[in-house]
Amino acid sequence: MGKREKGGFWVGAAAAAFYPMTWLGKRTYVGGDKLPRTGAALLVMNHVSHLDPPNDAVFVHRNKRVPRFMAKDSLFKVPIFGRILKGSGGIPVYRGSSEAKDSLRAAHEALQEGKVVVIYPEGTISKDPTGWPMRARTGVARLALENDVPVLPAARWGTNDIWDGYTKKFRPLPRKHVRTVVGDPVDLSAYRGKPITNQLLREVTDLLMTQVRDLLAEIREEQPPAEFFRPGAKRDETAS
Prior knowledge:
Layout: H1 9-22, E1 25-30, E2 41-45, H2 52-62, E3 67-72, H3 81-87, E4 91-93, H4 100-112, E5 116-119, H5 139-146, E6 151-157, H6 159-162, E7 163-164, E8 169-170, E9 176-182, H7 198-220
Parallel strand pairs: 1-9, 2-5, 2-6, 3-4, 3-5
Antiparallel strand pairs: 6-9, 7-8
Protein name: 1-acyl-sn-glycerol-3-phosphate acyltransferases
Organism: Actinokineospora alba
GO molecular function: 1-acylglycerol-3-phosphate O-acyltransferase activity
């Protein structure tokens, strides 16, 4: 199985905080062996609940890697949690500011250093009424194209049944089933080497999120919508 990637004190602190949170649900992990045991990888996931980061962090950690999450910069200011996030290698995303490019630069550096970077390209919990992925921001495509690393789509479902961030309902009992599935690395060879335009970034972003959506459809055993949900407000898509 290989040795566990070393994480240090703050990764241990994160593990101590996050593992108990995952006990709220019955967990099923499929495809964890597809996560490289060494070297960089970009893990692209859907987002349906505030419980997603703890669940996904434990999933990656159980596969002997240390996850580096891209997260809103405001989360780094939360007492205790923000210190754990920063200390464990979290990557702040500065949206709507001149620092947006810096957030991607930090993610580039993490990938170049051989880390596993976890990204939620939707940028927030899905606002789709039925929980399918929304139209994503294109920062994920830039990371995928500018770094020659495995890009793995993954989907998780069930955390939203425990904690729904929009209805504010917390329903730990009876215990819900949380399922996580990782797909095969996405072949981006047809896109690499081309001039990076907005059109190319959008095409690659939609390709990656389609893979994520298909995995979610597999978990839910439902037919996914043909198009991604688009909230009414127009948003900047330069960040993740």
